UniProtKB/TrEMBL annotation:
Keywords: Oxidoreductase. InterPro entries: NAD(P)-bd_dom_sf, SDR_fam. It is an enzyme of class 1 (oxidoreductase). GO terms for molecular function: 3-oxoacyl-[acyl-carrier-protein] reductase (NADPH) activity. SUPFAM superfamilies: NAD(P)-binding Rossmann-fold domains. It comes from the Bacteria. NCBIfam families: PRK06057.1. The keyword Ribosomal protein does not apply. It comes from Blastococcus brunescens. This is 3-oxoacyl-ACP reductase. Its EC number is 1.1.1.100.
Length: 205
């Protein structure tokens, strides 16, 4: 597959600037930004057990990186009069969980709120900003959770009405939709792709 790879620490402002500069210099425009970096380390747990180091590390990767990427890419999109930004939040941004990851949840709530505000602020300039809110996705991170704590993983799975976790390709299809002109009348949106979790009171037996 053709493409350009730019090694980037998305928590470092100069790295982010170099990333979007390389994209613009290579392709002549920056039409889409998909801001998807995120971590969920085991030391991010209940508020009673999570230390400040864990709190700040998650905030930096999950929330500050989105701030830096949006701040850097929006001027490119302003000059060309169009663009689509997709920021990965999470279904936990709209729900509470007793199995808490306090910094992760707070960071994703921040991504959701920031995306909504930017979507409104820059709408008249042709720039759309939407928050993608996936449910649990069958990725190595989730597989590690299954391996290390099957009971905790099973407790999460029971709340998914569709009875399974998402496949990465299903989330990629949602990103492609939000990036495309098919979603041209969508901005400041909370786009849930969560298998029905956020709409469920009880799930089928």
């Amino acid at each position: 597959m053709d493409g350009t790879f730019v090694r980037t620490d998305v928590t470092v402002e100069d790295d982010v600037a170099a990333l979007f500069s390389a994209a613009y210099d290579t392709y002549g425009s920056v039409d889409v930004a998909f801001n998807n970096a995120g971590i969920s380390p085991p030391d991010d747990d209940s508020i009673l057990d999570t230390g400040l180091d864990a709190w700040w590390r998650v905030q930096q990767v999950n929330l500050t990186s989105v701030f830096l990427c949006c701040k850097t890419v929006i001027p490119y999109m302003q000059r060309q009069g169009k663009g689509s930004i997709i920021n990965t939040a999470s279904f936990v941004a709209v729900m509470g969980a007793a199995t808490s990851q306090i910094s992760y949840s707070a960071s994703k709530g921040g991504v959701l709120s920031m995306s909504r505000e930017l979507g409104v602020q820059f709408a008249r300039e042709g720039i759309r900003v939407n928050a993608l809110c996936p449910g649990p996705v069958n990725t190595p991170l989730l597989q590690e959770l299954f391996a290390s704590d099957p009971a905790r993983a099973a407790r999460r799975l029971v709340h998914v009405p569709l009875g399974r976790f998402a496949q990465p390709e299903e989330i990629a299809a949602a990103v492609a939709f939000l990036a495309s002109d098919d979603s041209s009348f969508m901005t400041a949106s909370t786009f849930l792709v969560d298998g029905g979790i956020s709409g469920a009171y009880v799930t089928p037996e």
